[in-house]
Amino acid sequence: AEDAYVDDPRSFQKKPIGLADHLGRVAAQAGMLCDSLGETGFKEIVVRTGRWHDLGKAHPVFDATMHACEEAPLGFLAKSPCQARHRRPFFRHELASALAWLAHHDGEPNADLVAYLIAAHHGKVRMSLRAMPGEEAPPEIRRFARGVWEGDSLPALDFDGEQSPEITLKLALMEMGEGEQGASWMERTLRLLEQHGPFRLAWLEALVRIADWRASAVEQEVDHHA
């Protein structure tokens, strides 16, 4: 349903949670989940995905939504008490997160797998990367998809022992074939599907999503400001 792409209900909670704190907690939950299930072969990938999965929440569009009410504290937030919608309909923070990851790590072993799991962790971006029907285009000609516009800047953030310097997001991988970012998103994801198969990809996606849910539940139960 169209509303499923517009809304982001899990980002709105009673207790505000800082973005860097949330990324660290999801990585920790991902590690514990893999240990409890005996997932050793892909543990490092699942943990790294958890650590980067919500970096796109630092995007100015998402950050403005998180601070749309007086109850929201200063700083980048993963969870906010504000109930608002993004000024760009269809904006998906997980796509911005995946693009940021690739901007720093493209070409490294398993970089495409981490990027795919980041993009897929809400089940809204998987094999294809395109604008939604009726999505608002930027005022000038440039690529856009799911509310992310080519040329958008993502601010720097330090989190859980890692650092993401300020970057400019690119969307050349929307195009078919080889481009300025190398292989297209479609080619990368089809390669992952051929290498791992649909069941392993679904398994790894489930681990990331459950780690995210568990971390979010813990955050709302425990008073981290006490």
Report on the architecture of this protein:
A hairpin with a 2-residue loop joins strand 6 (157-159) and strand 7 (162-164). Helix 2 (19-37) crosses helix 7, helix 3 crosses helix 6 and helix 3 (43-52) packs across helix 7. The chain is built from 7 helices and 8 strands. By secondary structure, the protein is mainly alpha-helical. The strands form 4 sheets. Strands 1-2 form a two-stranded antiparallel ribbon. 45% of the residues lie in helices and 8% in strands. The mean pLDDT is 92.
Summarize the main sheet: 2 strands, antiparallel
Number of DSSP strands? 8
Radius of gyration: 17 Å
User: How much helicity do the residues have?
Assistant: 40-55%
- Mean pLDDT over all positions: 92
CA distance, first residue to last residue: 40 Å
Treating each run of at least 4 consecutive H or I residues as one helix, how many helices?
7
Subunit arrangement of the protein: single chain
How is the largest sheet built, in terms of strand order?
1-2
Low-confidence residue ranges: none
SS strand fraction: 5-15%
Structural class: mainly alpha
What is the helix/strand order? HEHHHEHHEEEEEEH
Sum up the overall morphology in one term: globular
Care to give the gist of this entry?
With 226 residues, the chain is mainly α. 45% of the residues lie in helices and 8% in strands. The chain is globular.
